[in-house]
């Protein structure tokens, strides 16, 4: 039981919420009312959750020595000795094989995208996460692959606007995490692995980039809602009324990442923040009502 609990903690189920991006094409293609496509999307989401878990386990094995000298990461199951490296690697392999097999059964395109996602994340863990700005770019491409996977699962074309908005939002969120890590390293005076991985970043530059991306992301979403093709596809121009929720969500994330940082990373803090969750519920409810409620 202790090993199972340690394994579950290692594969980080609380981080799997990022894989809801796989379901975005289902919602915006107006296919949420088609049970067969819902089932295919659910399988694709679960497959990416398994892949994410496999990557987290692999990453913790790779970084076990650095994590043992980190004040927070040393409490993770592998550096703490609650889960053996061998068990973690076997579990990662099993999760990856199950996920890729499920994707291959659904669609060869989905399987290729899932494999690309896995390879990219392994490369990120091994090397790319140590290269400033490249690491954030890899994170952003991971979100794009999630959206493309969702489109492949139900055999629809991913909207260019959806991809643009996803990419901008992903870079924004990635920089928010880096800003938090920089602030944490400064407060703690850490010169260990955390400092080394952030050597190419400067907090004022990251903050400026985040503010710029916040504006551009909101503008891109508004442009998407007012695009003639969008209005024709949904047969309404009302989708623009969801834009204030998007802007409020981005503003709230800025507060959590830059102006009121907590010990948790901003991506974790926002999932515990009642105001952000309220804004998120408003955005989801408004979008679903506009697309499906008429």
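-> sequence recovered:
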């Amino acid at each position: 039981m202790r090993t199972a609990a340690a394994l579950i903690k290692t594969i980080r189920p609380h981080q799997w919420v990022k894989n809801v991006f796989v379901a975005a094409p289902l919602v915006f293609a107006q296919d949420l009312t088609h049970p067969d496509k819902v089932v295919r999307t659910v399988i694709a989401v679960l497959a990416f959750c398994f892949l994410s878990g496999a990557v987290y386990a692999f990453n913790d094995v790779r970084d076990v020595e650095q994590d043992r000298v980190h004040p927070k990461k040393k409490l993770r199951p592998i550096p703490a000795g609650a889960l053996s490296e061998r068990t973690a690697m076997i579990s990662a392999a099993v999760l990856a094989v199950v996920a890729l097999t499920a994707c291959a059964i659904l669609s060869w395109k989905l399987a290729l995208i899932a494999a690309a996602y896995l390879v990219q994340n392994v490369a990120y863990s091994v090397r790319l996460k140590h290269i400033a700005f490249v690491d954030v770019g890899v994170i952003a491409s991971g979100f794009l692959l999630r959206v493309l996977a969702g489109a492949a699962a139900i055999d629809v074309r991913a909207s260019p606007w959806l991809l643009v908005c996803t990419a901008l939002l992903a870079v924004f969120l990635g920089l928010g995490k880096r800003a938090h890590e920089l602030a944490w390293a400064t407060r703690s005076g850490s010169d260990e692995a955390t400092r080394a991985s952030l050597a190419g970043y400067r907090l004022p530059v990251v903050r400026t980039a985040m503010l710029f991306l916040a504006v551009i992301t909101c503008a891109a979403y508004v442009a998407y809602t007012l695009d003639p093709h969008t209005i024709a596809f949904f047969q309404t121009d009302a989708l623009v009324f969801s834009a204030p929720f998007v802007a409020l969500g981005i503003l709230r994330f800025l507060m959590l990442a830059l102006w009121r940082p907590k010990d948790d990373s901003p991506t974790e803090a926002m999932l515990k923040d009642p105001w952000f969750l309220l804004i998120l519920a408003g955005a989801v409810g408004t979008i679903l009502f506009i697309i499906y409620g008429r």
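The radius of gyration is 20 Å.
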